[in-house]
Amino acid sequence: MEAKKNMKEFYLKKYPTDKLGEEINLNANFVGLIETILSGRDVYDYIGVGDSVIRERLFLKVCEIANCKYKMLFNLWLDTVKI
Q1: pLDDT tens per residue, range 25-69
Q2: pLDDT for the residue numbered 51
Q3: Which candidate, 43, 45, 67, places its Cα nearest to that of 56?
Q4: From its phi and psi, is residue 48 left (phi > 0), alpha (psi between -120 and 50) or beta?
Q5: Rounded distance, CA 63 to CA 51, Å?
Q6: How far apart are alpha carbons 48 and 76 in whole angstroms?
Q7: Is the pLDDT of residue 82 over 70?
Q8: Domain locations in the chain?
Q9: CB 17 within 8 A of CB 54
Q10: Which residue in 6, 11, 13, 61 is deepest, having the highest Cβ count within 10 Å?
Q11: Closest by alpha carbon to 23, among 1, 2, 53, 3?
Q12: What's the confidence (pLDDT) of residue 80?
């Protein structure tokens, strides 16, 4: 199941020149990222990297897996983020 795919493994394969990808949480997967968004927890803590480019790329993969629009997921994240 692609949703349970390891995010770090996916990211390093898709973006091999982005060295910051090495810092992605080894235990993170796309199901966990969705759960993190829905619960309002910090996605950057879950991902393990505070980089918006990495977050955006992982959100794009979530949208591909869930067959949804990026804007919908991004707005959901903005609505649930706790400041």
Answers
A1: 999 999 999 999 999 999 999 999 999 999 999 999 999 999 999
A2: 96
A3: 43
A4: left
A5: 19
A6: 20
A7: no
A8: 2-80
A9: no
A10: 11
A11: 53
A12: 86
8 to 20, 36, 68, 81: CA distances (angstroms): 10, 16, 22, 23
Cβ-proximal residues to 51 (8 Å cutoff; 6+ apart), any chain? 20
Global pTM reads 0.91
Q: Residue 29: which region, alpha, beta or left (left: phi > 0; alpha: psi -120 to 50)? A: beta
Distance CA 54, CA 62 (A): 12
3-state DSSP assignment of residue 29: strand
Going by pLDDT thresholds of 50, 70 and 90, the confidence category of residue 4 is confident
